[in-house]
Target: Abc transporter
Amino acid sequence: MITMTNVTKTYKSGDSETYALKEINLTIGEGEFVVILGPSGSGKSTLLNVISGLDTVTSGKITFRDEELTDLSEDEMTEFRRRHLGFIFQQYNLLQNLNVYENIQIGSDIGTNPLDIDELLQKVGLENARNKYPNQLSGGEQQRVSIVRSLAKNPDIIFCDEPTGSLDEQNSKKILQMLQDLNVAYKKTIIVITHNTGIAEMADKVIKMNSGQITEVIINKVKKNAQ
Ligand code: ADP
Ligand code: ADP
Model:
């Protein structure tokens, strides 16, 4: 689904140059649950940013299905993001003056083939929170709302940047379990960035990064059958 070929990203400041990504080669398949692991500064966010077109590459090529993303203009890339990608961050970014349903609706309106919001709320156990406001919900519940918001527009890929970074262990587990269930139920490609090594066992593929390079790719073949 996504292919990266010799992707390099450097940041220049004065005479010095930082390699945020160095000659990355990577493929991500349709419907895969991928976890990107690595210490702070290893290039995880940059990897997410260049795949999602939030940032340009210095050299190399990225393709999505048969489309070469690195050839798209900024407007085309914005349209690509709008149609195909969903995002979940450490911060839930919910609008405080809108209720749960309205927060989700904002995200789904921009999709061409949105999913049913009430059905999604039921899937994540929030059917009774439909008319509540963000400040009436726990952190874990707010993150579940932001997951539904990203899913509602029916994207092909959901990017999660430290989705459990603000949650305790128990809530983190719940959120990750939920992402895994949604990956199976809706066949969405899910890419999770984290430095929480406990997440790795849930993934189809674990990509370990260090100093802008992929140091190891672990493919977990048994996961889906073992559930
Ligand atoms: P996290 O690891 O939590 O994702 P980052 O270290 O990646 O946090 O930083 C968050 C944001 O700051 C990113 O958008 C990244 O591009 C930017 N950033 C990171 N390092 C630098 C830097 N040295 N100079 C300028 N911006 C940076
Ligand atoms: P991670 O997400 O794994 O913490 P990042 O992708 O944010 O790592 O950063 C990789 C490297 O690139 C780091 O050395 C970081 O300081 C640098 N970097 C990231 N964004 C910027 C930026 N906007 N300007 C300068 N350096 C950056």
